[in-house]
């Protein structure tokens, strides 16, 4: 196995390529904004602490709606299920991300996306500098899951589903 030449591709491209080999979950973080619901697809979501119940995600600093989400102080982490690739893609791109999306208001008005396999309602606790991203810490105030649904996974630049054991 050889290292990729960073001089030919550039460090950022190599970083993205190599870390793309780590399979991650897909989350859609939502909040209520002054002019309607806000949301974006996020792969950098993790459970941070059991006591207290904390989670973390890291949106890019260039994400324009982040100040509006910060002002609401409440958000929901929606975990899309297999079969919701369109949801992950819609919230990753520009435009009206909620067009055709069924949802109901959760804590603080943060949208709970229908069909997800899990929902984590949170209050904003802290934000930290994370280079070209902001590290957001939230306290879980409500937790729900639908055990009949499997989560959507992201690996090597594509949405995937979990393999079923034999």
Automatic annotation (TrEMBL):
Arranged from A to Z, the UniProt key words for this protein are: Oxidoreductase
Species of origin reads Streptomyces osmaniensis
Name of this protein:
Flavin reductase family protein
Tell me which residues make up the Flavin reductase like domain. 19-161
Q: Which InterPro entries match?
A: Flavin_Rdtase-like_dom, NADH-dep_flavin_reductase, Split_barrel_FMN-bd
Q: Which family does it belong to?
A: Belongs to the non-flavoprotein flavin reductase family.
